[in-house]
């Protein structure tokens, strides 16, 4: 031994102890120069060493106490050098640690760290010398210790390299993800959800366990014992992240979302009608804007249609017309201020529209979404989303806005069924409504179950009554307490005078039970296209109906009526019914899904048959309405309606945008890593693209009932709203 040249791994002292001391010195230098990359190597080496001590210490122990002391001292020194977290390291030994090369070009293609190669070369020399060493005599022929240690180093090197790479998905992982994303589609085919979950679990469990374990070592602490779905999402996210791919759950979404200009969120409420047209889609969105604007969390913009003067004369009552949008805005604000007890701080914008006589509604002209600036394109509330998007040819709402809520006001299918070829038209409109609401809305609110079932929809009454009606009701209760006779008149009906608004049902009921209701008469208030026809039918049947021009329901002349009769079954949620209840009157209405919200009020009397209608009329005319409790008054208010709207539309969560912290925050942050687009998102994007293509064809638009020239706004609307012509905003080159 002494006559030989000093070994490359000899550091003095006993051969075994010097070898291990020298290796430990080299390991400390590795730790000091590449501590972050070698943390996993230390832990793995520690486990291998513990395994070695456990397996081979009895063999070493047989060699004797004196030799055992030398052997274990070297092993202990090696182990302590690996697991020690602090302390002085290394000194300057004969063996110098080769450091990492600084240039990526030199690193590329290396399969082993240079430090590992030098340790391995040292171990070869150590193995050669150990053959003649008595301490390691128990390992002669097999060189078990050296071989095991070299394998450990190789494994550490390989693991360190692979831990930095995200390996591609295998086939079973892809199948598991596709089955899970296809859940809604498989539901439509009648395949149970639990069976889908079982398939996902089966595919996922057949994956390469080594792959999953070693590809996500840093994430195991985050996902913990969570379910398989979270692990699969995280795995997909890591693979996508490694490719540089990014998506916001749809191929068709705008990659550059507009940032909010200040700390307040922006809510745009887009509706299909405006005052002075006294219709629900003009009044209810106006109150919604006022009550949402009371919060300091968001700014609100109400977007309403602007009509040319010729259309204004057809739509607005009492020959009211406006020469400019500013005039109409002043009218709207004055009307609202008379009915509110606070200052309504919101913005009003206009988009061009045209009135359709056949549909008796306003159809948007051009791309309505362009009238909300990009800086305010945050949250959109589409009042009547199906109506707004039937012929929408413009930017997709869910691309421009972060959250889009649709509020369904009208039971269009019920109206269409009453027309010629109504069944066929209703079938087509039903599917078109499904199409556009799915393509353009994140959430849909249906005021009652009277509307068709739509994708992503929930049922909730998110409308309240004008505060003025609640004050009228309070005054009536106070007058009754002072002994005054409050109701001096009988029954009345108020509504737009078209057959579908309940006039057909009213005439049928009264004509059928004319003898049972002898002496009973109803005063009718309303204007509309069918006024002449309704009055003519009533005269022919000699019914006790007295017709008057339409007026505001809060008019003083209507306070004295005790009974409000509404036989309509075409409404979604009748605003006049809610107003009558707020004023403390009896309400007689059909037992119908549109009246479900009102059934909890004691003054609401419902009927299923014409005989029950007669009984309810007699009951109401003979009795006195019950005063509303404070809770019942609150349920009718816009404050309560706004709370319901915030909850059911999930707008409260969007506005709050709650931040998370701690371990839970890490989990949520990890789940925000971009994943593969959901299958439903891809389908929605495809539907929106197809709709955009179809609505761009003028022939198809006209064939489906669109007003000619509504794909873009016309010259007169450009002048009224100070807009650039469509040809300037969207030029077509090459013609």
From TrEMBL:
Its EC number is 2.4.1.241. GO terms for biological process: galactolipid biosynthetic process. Residues 491-624 form the Glycosyl transferase family domain. The keyword Glycosyltransferase applies. It catalyses: a 1,2-diacyl-3-O-(beta-D-galactosyl)-sn-glycerol + UDP-alpha-D-galactose = a 1,2-diacyl-3-O-[alpha-D-galactosyl-(1->6)-beta-D-galactosyl]-sn-glycerol + UDP + H(+). One of its GO terms (molecular function) is digalactosyldiacylglycerol synthase activity. Its main location: plastid. Keywords: Chloroplast, Glycosyltransferase, Membrane, Plastid, Plastid outer membrane, Transferase, Transit peptide. Coiled coil: none annotated. GO terms for cellular component: chloroplast outer membrane. It is found in: Plastid, Chloroplast outer membrane. It comes from the Eukaryota. Belongs to the glycosyltransferase group 1 family. Glycosyltransferase 4 subfamily. This is Digalactosyldiacylglycerol synthase 1, chloroplastic. It comes from Leersia perrieri.
């Amino acid at each position: 031994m002494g006559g030989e040249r000093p070994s490359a791994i000899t550091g003095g002292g006993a051969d075994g102890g010097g070898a291990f001391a020298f290796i430990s010195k080299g390991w400390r230098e590795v730790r000091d120069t590449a501590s972050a990359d070698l943390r996993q190597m230390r832990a793995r080496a520690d486990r291998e060493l513990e395994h070695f001590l456990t397996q081979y210490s009895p063999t070493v122990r047989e060699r004797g106490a004196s030799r055992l002391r030398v052997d274990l001292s070297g092993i202990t020194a090696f182990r302590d050098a690996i697991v020690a977290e602090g302390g002085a390291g290394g000194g300057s030994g004969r063996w110098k640690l080769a450091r990492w090369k600084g240039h990526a070009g030199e690193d590329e293609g290396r399969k082993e760290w240079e430090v590992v190669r030098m340790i391995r070369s040292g171990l070869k020399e150590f193995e050669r010398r150990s053959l003649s060493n008595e301490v390691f005599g128990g390992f002669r022929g097999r060189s078990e210790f050296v071989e095991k240690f070299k394998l450990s180093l190789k494994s550490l090197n390989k693991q360190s390299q692979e831990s930095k790479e995200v390996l591609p998905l295998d086939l079973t992982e892809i199948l598991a993800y596709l089955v899970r994303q296809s859940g809604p589609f498989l539901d439509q085919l009648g395949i149970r959800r639990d069976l889908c979950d079982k398939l996902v679990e089966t595919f996922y469990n057949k994956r390469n366990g080594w792959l999953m374990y070693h590809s996500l070592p840093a994430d195991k602490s985050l996902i913990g014992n969570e379910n398989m779905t979270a692990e699969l999402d995280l795995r997909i996210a890591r693979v996508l992240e490694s490719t540089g791919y990014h998506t916001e759950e749809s191929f068709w979404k705008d990659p550059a979302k507009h940032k909010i200009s200040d700390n307040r969120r922006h809510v745009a409420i887009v509706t299909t009608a405006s005052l002075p047209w006294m219709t629900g889609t003009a009044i209810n969105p106006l109150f919604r804007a006022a009550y949402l604007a009371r919060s300091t969390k968001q700014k609100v913009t109400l977007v309403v249609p602007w009509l040319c003067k010729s259309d204004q004369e057809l739509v607005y009552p009492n020959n009211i017309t406006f020469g400019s949008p500013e005039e109409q805005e002043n009218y709207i604000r004055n009307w609202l201020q008379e009915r509110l007890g606070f200052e309504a701080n919101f913005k009003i914008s206009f988009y061009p529209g045209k009135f359709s006589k056949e549909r008796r509604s306003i159809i948007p002209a051009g791309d309505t979404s362009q009238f909300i600036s990009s800086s305010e394109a945050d949250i959109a509330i589409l009042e009547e989303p199906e109506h707004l998007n039937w012929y929408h040819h413009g930017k997709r709402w869910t691309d421009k806005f972060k959250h889009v809520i649709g509020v369904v006001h009208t039971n269009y299918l019920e109206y269409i069924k009453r027309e010629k070829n109504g069944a066929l038209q209703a079938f087509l409109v039903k599917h078109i409504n499904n199409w556009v609401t799915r393509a353009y809305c994140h959430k849909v609110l249906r005021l009652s179950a009277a509307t068709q079932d739509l994708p992503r929809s929930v049922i909730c009454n998110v409308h309240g009554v004008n505060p003025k009606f609640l004050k009228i009701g309070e005054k009536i209760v106070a007058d009754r307490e002072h002994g005054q006779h409050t109701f001096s008149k009988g029954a009345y009906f108020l509504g737009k005078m078209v057959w579908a608004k309940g006039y057909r049902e009213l005439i049928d009921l009264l004509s059928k039970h004319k003898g049972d209701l002898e002496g009973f008469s109803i005063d009718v208030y309303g204007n509309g296209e069918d006024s002449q026809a309704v009055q003519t039918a009533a005269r022919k049947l000699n019914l006790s109906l007295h017709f008057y021009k339409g007026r505001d329901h809060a008019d003083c002349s209507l306070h004295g009526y005790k009974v409000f009769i509404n036989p309509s079954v075409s409404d979604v949620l009748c605003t006049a019914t809610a107003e009558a209840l707020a004023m403390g009157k009896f309400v007689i209405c059909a037992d119908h899904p549109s009246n479900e919200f009102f059934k909890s009020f004691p003054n609401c009397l419902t009927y299923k048959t014409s005989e029950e209608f007669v009984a309810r009329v007699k009951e109401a005319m003979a009795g006195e309405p019950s005063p509303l409790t404070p809770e019942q008054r609150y349920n009718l208010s816009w404050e309560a309606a706004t709370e319901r709207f915030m909850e059911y539309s999930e707008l409260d969560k969007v506005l709050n945008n709650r931040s998370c912290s701690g371990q839970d925050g890490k989990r949520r942050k990890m789940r925000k890593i971009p994943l593969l687009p959901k299958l439903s998102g891809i389908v929605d994007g495809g539907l929106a693209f197809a709709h955009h293509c179809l609505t761009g064809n003028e022939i198809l638009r006209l064939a489906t009932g669109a007003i000619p020239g509504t794909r873009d706004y016309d010259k007169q609307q450009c002048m009224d709203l100070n807009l650039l012509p469509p040809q300037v905003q969207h030029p077509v080159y090459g013609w």
